[in-house]
Amino acid sequence: MNYKKVLAVRYRLIIKYTGILVILTALALILPLLSLVFYPGETNYIIHFIYSSIFAFVVGGLMYFYGHSSDNSQVDLTLKEGSIIVLLSWILAMFFSAIPFLWGMKMSWTHAIFEVVSGWTTTGLSVMNVETTPAIFLLWRSLMQLLGGAGLAVIALSYLLPVHGMGLYRAEARNDKLLPHVKKSTAMIMRIYGGFVLSGIFLYWLVGMDLFSAINHAMAALSTGGFSTKSASIGYWPEFDIELITIILMLLGTINFASHFTLLQGKVKTFFRNGEIRFMLLIIGFLTPLLMFTSLNLVYASLGTNLRITLFQVVSAISTTGFSTIDFNTWPLFANFIIIILMIIGGGTGSTAGGIKQYRIYIMIKSIFWEIKEQFSPRNQVKENYIWKGDNKEYINAEHIKEIANYIMLYLLTFAVGVAIFLLSGYGLQESLFEFGSALGTVGLSIGITSASAPNHILITEIAGMFLGRLEFLIIFFAAIKIIKDLKYISK
To answer: What is the Cα–Cα distance from 171 to 85, expressed in whole angstroms?
Structure first.
């Protein structure tokens, strides 16, 4: 079989698996109808979700049957092939998810796409007035964050796709195998994820939040998404216990699933050996009192209020959730600068969070110490550098550090370009750094730029940032380059 025929077979397989993920999106579009249990008067919006679901199901079904002749239950997808599937399925999922907003809410394409990209990427920035938005659309936004946090490919690998390779798994920015078999690993991720969400719903309801809000906020907190049913976000509920539950859920969402699995196995000491866990706790433990006593002590006179608000916003930023209890325009410049830094760092690798990721920052900091230590060690001494990840040691070599450094450079260059677009549009430096840092890090905190009245080119810049930040750049590049190279080869 020549290479062109091999490509044809592989692309039919890619189309087949993409079709399965589009069918999964079609099924997801039916779930918002559950809001009618709480708001039965919104039946007039049902048709928009049903039509969108049927449209997605037909397209997904056609893709599946077109590629079905290439069925091979033992196939191993490469990372590049997995990247194409993830990229295509995410684009199609966002397209079909936007249709109810276009038809039911009469939103423009830009606003509808912005809302669904913010949902699927678990960002939480919004151009909607949630106080006047029907509940069925609020639930759909939260469901998008729940599904986007888990990842379409991870959900499908858990129960649907007969794929044994790591290509599709890694294309969803997942590298940690909880169990030897990738399908068992993804199934375990879904059980952990679902268990935490159900626990969050119960706890919110137990402390007085109405059930509909509890469902939405548990999904948004655990997925580190940040969509709320109230314009004041979590600040709508002044109770400390609701803030405490939210902090716990945000932390659970930003910890990678390998570490969760370690803890659930009862390996508490191993859990706290993890470099990311230590690094995150160090950041929170250091920056919370730093902000309290150097910048916010004049804003909040009460020590208790100062601690409560500062801790919540530090966790919200480092976890890239984006829930807020305050208006950041009331904060001093230094405090907002720290929040920007936290949004750039981001959460744990292999979690639902965004940003550069704590793992990468931790490795780069450790590499500095390793380099200094090496200069003072005997020349013939062989030293293997490692960190703890999950319940295993991960050995770090020079190639690994180079890959991380390249990623960080790419992230910062993209950040600089986005900020430059904001500056050219007339926004101040602080506002530009904050708003695009939030979009690129898939955080969702806003200093006031993102709204329905924002210029379209600013919203498009944020859409690009959210998409790149969630799929971590290289996956998009891998997919695009492979498609271009394969098209050139076929056209010869």
So the answer is: 9
First to last CA, the chain: 17
Q: What is the DSSP code string of 190-217? A: HHHHHHHHHHHHHHHHHTT--HHHHHHH
Give which of 429, 439, 436, 438 is closest to 466, Cα–Cα: 439
Assign residue 320 a region (left: φ > 0; alpha: ψ between -120 and 50; beta: otherwise): left
Rounded Cα gap, residues 141 and 391, in angstroms: 35
Which pTM value belongs to this model? 0.92
Distance CA 390, CA 383 (A): 22
**Residues 6+ positions from 435 with CB-CB distance below 8 Å:** 422, 427, 446, 447, 449, 450, 462
**Region 242-247 average pLDDT:** 96
Tell me the torsion sign for CA atoms 11, 109, 453, 29: negative
**Count of other CB atoms within 10 angstroms of residue 239:** 12
Look at the alpha carbons of 290, 291, 296, 300 in this order and tell me if their dihedral is positive or negative: negative
Which tokens is 342 given? 């936290």
- Which contiguous run of DSSP H or E holds residue 281? helix 275-294
Q: What are the pLDDT digits (tens) for 316-332? A: 999 999 999 899 999 99
Structure tokens at 428: 């101040």
Tell me the two tokens of residue 27: 């099924």
Mean pLDDT of the region 214-234:
94
Average pLDDT, the chain: 88
Read off the DSSP letter of residue 186.
H
